[in-house]
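Lab notebook, design round three. We kept the backbone fixed and only want residue identities now. Task for the bench partner: fill in a sequence for the structure below.
Input structure tokens:
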């Protein structure tokens, strides 16, 4: 089985990310550990680039409180209808704000060769919320959805 960037991100999330996402403290040691665990160096490097890009998006400030989002063709191709509806559901229910929505979409699109499922999208949302300051409540609500503690949404 070929490991993907998402697999590396999940490994890092489950083993190293307890607080806010930052560049991991001893990234060289962690990279070595990941390669010893069987992850490909290219995928490991891409995962670290993905996290670095996520941590740099903290400075984004929302410009509008309410905005209507139109998805471009590339986004529609990457994010199936279930994923797009889920993003809108999260925003309508106050789990994502417009800024975090854009970061989620950006990070989903950055997983170039990944086929994106609703389950993967849930984890991306969780990682994004963990990376953002003052999003503890939204993170907690999303964590309940990811771990199926509450139904995600009604169809």
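Proposed sequence:
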């Amino acid at each position: 089985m070929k490991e993907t960037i998402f697999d590396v991100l999940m490994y890092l999330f489950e083993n190293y990310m307890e607080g806010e996402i930052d560049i991991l403290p001893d990234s060289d040691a962690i990279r070595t550990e990941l390669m010893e665990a069987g992850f490909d160096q290219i995928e490991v490097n891409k995962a670290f680039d993905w996290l670095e890009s996520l941590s740099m998006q903290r400075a984004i400030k929302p410009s509008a409180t309410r905005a209507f989002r139109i998805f471009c063709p590339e986004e529609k191709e990457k994010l199936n209808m279930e994923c797009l509806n889920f993003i809108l559901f999260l925003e309508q229910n106050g789990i994502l704000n417009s800024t975090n929505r854009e970061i989620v979409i950006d990070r989903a699109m950055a997983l170039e060769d990944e086929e994106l499922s609703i389950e993967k999208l849930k984890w991306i949302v969780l990682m994004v919320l963990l990376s953002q300051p003052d999003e503890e409540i939204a993170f907690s609500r999303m964590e309940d959805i990811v771990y199926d503690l509450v139904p995600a949404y009604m169809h």
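Keep this in mind before ordering anything: The radius of gyration is 15 Å.
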